[in-house]
Amino acid sequence: MDFTSLKIPDLNGRKVLITGASTGIGAACAKAFAAQGARVAIHYNSSADAAKAVETDIENAGGHAALVKADFSDSGEVRRAVEEAADILGGLDGLINNAGAMVKRVKYEDATDADYDAIMDLNARSVVAATRAAIPHMKEKGGFIVNTSSIAGRNGASGGAGLYGSSKAFVSNVTRGMAKELIAYNIRVNAVAPGVILTPFQERYTKQEQLDAMLTTIPQGRLGVAEDCVGAYLFLASAMLSGYMIGQVLEVNGGQLMP
């Protein structure tokens, strides 16, 4: 999908940190925000080559991007990454909390404290840590935060993905709590909850037979791709388009879940 022909004026020049932006939904968002004239900080951890490719694509298209490396399972690293991004960009107007992973499939009966910590630290604690670090940079002029939740946060997940689903349920609810508090600073907080999206995430954690089974539950008749989610992030980031929306979780799932 080509977002270069789309023009959202109030995103032009915005300084945006997108976490987990080396592949998948984060990478698609980075390119789309840059196409709107935003200055984008691309956070990554282990996927350096992929992150560099995203940066190159943005710059070749005439956009502005910079790379920020950090392990988002470590709150100290999260805070450092936010400060580094704000320093590189010359401030911060927006934060897309997209970093996360299933980490591993493990049934509740087999899950250890270490499994719980690894999954919750990366998917839940990082959202709180990144937001807390970003608030001082947005308090004076306002801004936006869009968190990435998941359909798994509403349907409980399955096949050993329960802890991941629970971490995303946390993200959806923390979005509502943050929205109530941060609107006092004119910081709008919302979330996007993707369904089954074909990204490296699914390649890593989901077998083909599981994807085939999930496909049968999607009325639109296809699995999603990263670009299917981008419009929701752009919409929620733009005060022109969604200025009276806070604490909302937009479901992007081809009709698999209609809450």
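(ticket continues) Second input and output from the same batch:
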Amino acid sequence: MSYVTGDKPSASGCVFCQAVGAGDDEAMLVLHRGVHAYVIMNRYPYNNGHIMVVPFAHVPRLTDLPAEVAAEIVQLTSRTQDIIQQKMNPHGFNLGMNQGSAAGAGIEEHLHMHLVPRWVGDTNFMPAIGETRVIPQDLHDTYALLKGGFSDDA
């Protein structure tokens, strides 16, 4: 509801670069910072707990990344999946990267891995009929739940 009634974010610049550079991880929903990549919640999620793993490097394709950066993205995705499984107990996950507008990338210029927890019966008539998604938990409540899973940051 805050999105519908609130001020809209500026359309200029990269939202991923702005989020990680803002200096307020909680406000930007950044859950964890690694060496080459970070974990951030999707502000406009497909489902509750929708997370993205994003390289600090502003590149559009996986092939643009050095091997160690790509490896960290996979490692952070795996770690995040474990945390979500422990904290939210989903029945499954969708994982993926959309590269290029033809592939469905909403933000083409900055590569990111989506991790979306799924539950049996988590879809209903609302997206099909009402073009509306129902998210049962406030983003900041989900942030607090998942942030604790990264408390052993090393």
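Agent notes: Residues 9-150 form a domain with the HIT family, subunit A fold (CATH 3.30.428.10). The mean pLDDT is 86. Closing as not reproducible unless the customer responds.
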